[in-house]
Design brief:
Elements: E1 8-11, E2 17-24, H1 37-53, E3 60-67, E4 72-80, E5 83-88, H2 91-106
Helix pairs in contact: 1-2
Length: 111
C-alpha cells in the first residue's frame, strides 16, 4: 500500500515527468514535519495546498502533475460520496510541484 502523501512517480519516456498524488482527507494525514529533506517537505506543501482547494466534504484527492523542461500543468479531483469535482491545479501549486521534482533530482533521485 502506498503512502497517501508520497507522489507516485513515472517517466513518460519523452523527457517529461508525471506525478500522481493520492491523498487522504485532512484528519487522516500525518502531522507536518514527519518527513525528512527538502523534497519531502515540498511534497507535503503540495499536498496541503491541494487539500485546501477541495470542497468541505471531500474524502479522496487525486492529482496528476506533468512537468517538462518547457511547461508544467496539473489536474486535481476530489470525491466524497457520489460527488466528484475536478479542476485545473493553479500555477503556483504546479510550480511548487516542479520545485519538489527538482529537489528530488538534486538529491540524486529519479524524477
Amino acid at each position: 500500500m502506498s503512502n497517501p502523501q508520497q507522489p507516485a512517480r513515472g517517466d513518460a519516456g519523452n523527457g517529461s515527468s508525471r506525478e500522481h498524488v493520492t491523498g487522504a482527507a485532512p484528519e487522516d494525514r500525518p502531522a507536518p514535519g514527519t518527513g525528512s529533506g527538502d523534497s519531502q517537505e515540498l511534497a507535503e506543501q503540495v499536498g496541503r495546498a491541494l487539500a485546501e482547494l477541495g470542497p468541505p466534504d471531500w474524502a479522496r484527492l487525486e492529482a496528476d502533475v506533468a512537468v517538462t523542461v518547457a511547461d508544467a500543468a496539473g489536474v486535481v479531483a476530489f470525491s466524497g460520496g457520489e460527488r466528484r469535482v475536478q479542476l485545473e491545479i493553479p500555477t503556483p501549486i504546479v510550480e511548487l510541484a516542479r520545485s519538489q521534482r527538482e529537489s528530488v533530482v538534486r538529491g540524486g533521485g529519479e524524477p
